[in-house]
Design goal:
179 residues, mainly beta, 12-stranded antiparallel sheet, 12 strands, 70% strand, globular
Length: 179
């Protein structure tokens, strides 16, 4: 999605996925996400290994590598697919997990490192695609001496979006998010 939001800025929401089967029950997935708007300007490149334990249960290990090692993320997820077209993903992500050991700046987390816990569900059928879930970013304190400030952060969000295809080439969609 791209749109002009001011005479100086574009809104960009991009998402791309590539999945390769390494073996019958082992998969590699690359996911690219970009969100650029008036509040956020970020991009992520997730690499993920997924191991199928059964037709309906898989485990995943993933990471978001960055040029700046201080920004590397890692995580694990449990994927449950109770029926065809319906997938649930329960996840745990540790953000900036190498910041303390591989930081080229003076900033440090105080206390616990930032982690996110969440669930995302997707449902796909012939005429409706939907995605819903929640995410909780646990409280974190981040000392930024180069800026002379202490940053505290905690966030919980709930979201749902859908697209309904009502005729060939015609659809309508909506997204609701509370955070």
């Amino acid at each position: 999605t791209v749109g002009s939001i001011t005479n100086q800025h574009f809104l960009i929401y991009s998402r791309a996925k590539l999945q390769v089967d390494l073996e019958e029950t082992l998969h590699f997935r690359f996911t690219y996400l970009e969100q650029s708007d008036r509040e956020i300007d970020q991009s992520s490149h997730f690499v993920e290994l997924i191991k199928d334990l059964s037709p309906w249960l898989s485990v995943s290990a993933y990471g978001d590598p960055s040029h700046y090692k201080r920004s590397n993320d890692i995580g694990v997820a449990l994927l449950v697919t109770p029926t065809e077209g319906w997938t649930n993903r329960l996840y745990f992500t540790q953000h900036d997990f190498t910041r303390s050991a591989h930081n080229d700046l003076a900033d440090r987390f105080i206390g616990d490192d930032p982690i996110s816990l969440g669930w995302t569900g997707t449902f796909e059928s012939d005429s409706i695609d939907s995605r819903f879930g929640f995410r909780h970013d646990k409280p974190v304190a981040w000392n930024l001496p180069q800026e002379g400030r202490l940053f505290r952060y905690e966030k919980t969000l709930v979201f749902a979006d859908f697209e309904w295809v009502y005729d060939e080439g015609k659809s309508v969609g909506a997204r609701v998010q509370v955070d």
